[in-house]
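Lecture 7 notes: from sequence to structure.
We start with the chain below.
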Amino acid sequence: MAAHTLRGLYRPRFALLAARFSQRAAAGTEYRSAYSLDKLYPPRQDGATAASAPEETQPAALDIPLARLTVSYSRSSGPGGQHVNKVNTKAEVRFHLASADWIPEAVRQNMASMHRNKINRAGELIVNSEESRYQMRNLAICLEKIRTMVAEATEKPKVVSKETTQKLIERVEKMNRERLRQKKIHSAIKQSRKADFD
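Predicted structure tokens for the same chain:
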């Protein structure tokens, strides 16, 4: 009887909340978390906006097809207290690197050589994150790590000029000469401390 009375009290509140939510959704002012999917994966900009922005200041973001990724969650050893012992917050993202056609072939080969310790025997690149106590934030960190890996593999190695190489060699030789000089001074000091019993 008491439970039936309590249910009757909560029904108007639930209806009121549902009405408010539908009004906000209709007005487009409903609350969205900073970790909602539309903020983590913003829609693409149209060609006019992308063309107006200079390429040097803002590189094009890599579109990662989520359907091609295998995402799994597990218990985390990261921060979160008792929460991490109860909730699967650690995110692990893996994909087959050789068949990832959304990454250029040359970049895939560079990634395979640069991150060979993150590739398993099946050829899957594994990226995980347990930095946050939130599952969606860990997933976003994993995707950002993949973007960083692709960006690092895309960069061409810097060409060092002969003058710079010569300066580096001279600097190392000078450091070695100074080290040997200090070593001789220290050795002379140690020799002078020895007692002569003859």
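Points to note: The helical segments are 2-27, 37-40, 47-52, 82-86, 105-114, 135-154, 162-192. The two ends are 110 Å apart (CA to CA).
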